[in-house]
Amino acid sequence: MQQQQSIHAVFDKQSNQMKYEYRLSLSASIDVVRLLLNQGLSFRDHDESESSLNIGNFLEVLSRYRDRCEKIKPFVLQNAPKNNKMTSPDIQKNIMTACKIETIKAIIKDLNGDYFSLLVDESFDVSRKEQMAIVLRYVDRKGFVVEAFIGLVHVPDTSVLSLKKVIVNILAHHSLSLSFLRGQCYDGASNMQGDINGLKVLIEQESRSACSIHCFARQLQLTLVAVSKKCAQVGELVLLVSNILNVLGAAFKHMDELRESLKKRLQEALDIGELEKGKGLNQELGLVRAGDTRWGSHYKSFGNFILLFDSIIDVLDTLAEDASILDERAKATGYLRSCQTFEVAFMLYFMKDILGITMILIYRFRKRSKILLMP
């Protein structure tokens, strides 16, 4: 190939047979990439050598595809020319990028220049890099509400101006304007929802119609948590339950002991007729960690703690007597003593009942219907 020649000129000189083989090889790789993307699977593995027992999802699926399709068998993997295998990491990445571009094109075409809303969230990835996910919400031409993910962008910092710049650049890249923005939805972070210098305020200054309504269920959850923590007894209960869950979850052995105790007590209850047998009954329960921003998590945490209370006491009692580390024995003894007081038992049931009432309202908020009071 001469340096001054374009790739198109070189390709035109190839025989029709070579072009046919190239397209088959490329089509096979594209089919595998689309399958893996659709299923949300990883592409590569640590060791992709021929001696490896697992050469990664891409090569494994392509290998099975080759074995079952006689049409592509002579032109892929080992049977393909060394410079035309279409399996290198760069080729895989290029195909993925092409799929992303075509998918977003289809989304923008479906939007058809109409009004839209933005759903934005930020979080760290496993390498501790801050990333921002952007989703478009709109009504398509058939009248259906569509939520389409259009990008995951690394942000150098989480300042309001930086986040706004990223959003504006992404919208501009897809020929979208803030003037067509009719809604904003963010998490509860101050840089997002702040009423003075939050991201929503900056965007509303440019697009007055871009309303921002915080999730009602989340608002109720945050309000309940904030008000509850004003009560010392509730704060002590939340701390006690959290500490006990940390102790039990610190080792697989403790969780196994909890399951064995629960299994034994369930069998005893079934034997004396306190519980009924049947499909879907007496399912295994787990300990639920409460989160201030996860709606309903405190209700589930307290509810499961009550149902597993006897088994939790059994495990704490075992730890208080048999734990090899003095610190573990001391903690277990203290938690065991606190759990078996009237005050803790009363507060557990009291909070479960109070939160149970609010859960009805939270579930109403989560429904699409705006009718809150009808059964």
UniProtKB/TrEMBL annotation:
Residues 1-198 form the DUF4371 domain. Keywords: Membrane, Transmembrane, Transmembrane helix. InterPro entries: AtLOH3-like, DUF4371, RNaseH-like_sf. It comes from the Eukaryota. Pfam families: DUF4371. The chain crosses the membrane at residues 346-365. This is Zinc finger MYM-type protein 1-like.
